[in-house]
Amino acid sequence: MDKIDQYLQKFKNIKRSTSGTINIDPLQRGGILTDEARAALMEWGDGYSICDFCPGILDQVKTPPIHDFVHKALPRFLGIDEARVTNGARESKFAIMHSMTKDGNWIVLDQSAHYSSYVAAQRARINIKAVPNSGSPDYRTEADGYAGAIEEVIRESGRSPALALVTYPDGNYGNLPDVKKIAAVCHQYDVPLILNGAYSVGRMPVNAKELGVDFIVGSGHKSMAASGPVGVLGVSKEYSGIVFEKSPTNKVKEIEMLGCTARGATIMTMIASFPKVVERTRHWDEEVENARWFSSQLERLGLIQMGDRPHNHDLMFFEAPVLYEMSLTAKGGRYFLYKELKARKIHGIKAGLTKFFKLSTFGVSRDELTTVVSAFDEIINS
């Protein structure tokens, strides 16, 4: 048998084991495709499918209507002057950092920032100063912390940081910091501010100009009901010429975009879902109400919700001493919770976690949330 043939059968008819479950995975809730996106996926799934009538650069394609999406709809949605579609939020962050800084510059970002914010800065060869959060149980990020971090950079380097970044909300606790205050502090030092909205853009109303930020980043596969990897990038007019600089050798191509980014199913599923994504942001208050109700029910069972209280986002982090104690003697050990939830067709809490875990209630109906609460009740009190 040819060495490769032994693997070929394995690659046929691959199915997801989580189909038909209630999904509370925070990485996945906001990226679940709409019916319209699933239809678009079938129509546009071929490689380079959008390039039948390409004028040389992705965002100028008019058929399908990518130009209108990128240059008209998306800037209005983000509350920013110019927008692009990228291959993910981390690529958006790197494009900003790489174009706006030089080797040895500094960026100030929150301690709770996603690891990809740190890696993007490291790839751009810039130094990092972290703004500490308040620690347990709130883990809050305050504007004063940005002032302190910027002052530290000035003392250490003799100049202000080139950039600052705030995570809104952070990916662990779902905290929503006061971005307006943070932006005001940064601008006092002439430091442009990036808003990482990977868990907010597409879930809740977010307007860059109203918040006072200079850049906004979003994730299509985390929060805009799109196939991944795909993201969005918004830039204020003041900096758009820097971030979207054209190549001197290939006149229509933008350097930081490497010419073109999403070239098929990713951007088309994002566009297809966009009307419903816009609509769901108008019902954010209902999502927050569901999240708070769910949190109160789990706390009634002995779990402790960390982070902002009352909570203002669907992403939540729980400490679960009662489940941890059970795992010490339960069959399956620390995997018992995952197995118990799986048996009840509930997916999303990582296998092996009992003492601490995070989840999301975004787009989960109250009836489904009641089912999840009942499952935890059964597991704890059986």
Explain this structure to me?
The protein has two domains: 5-24 and 283-381, Aspartate Aminotransferase, domain 1 (Alpha-Beta Complex); 35-280, Type I PLP-dependent aspartate aminotransferase-like (Major domain) (Aspartate Aminotransferase, domain 2, 3-Layer(aba) Sandwich). The protein is globular and about 70 Å long. The longest helix has 17 residues, at 265-281. The chain has 382 residues and is of the alpha/beta class. It has 15 helices and twelve strands.
CATH class descriptor of the largest domain: Alpha Beta
Number of helices: 15
The string of secondary-structure elements, in order, is: HEHHEHEHEHEHEHEHEHHHEEHHEEH
Query: Which structural class fits the helix and strand makeup?
Result: alpha/beta
Helix content: 40-55%
Question: What's the overall average pLDDT, rounded?
Answer: 96
Beta-strand portion reads: 5-15%
Rg calculated over all Cα atoms = 22 Å
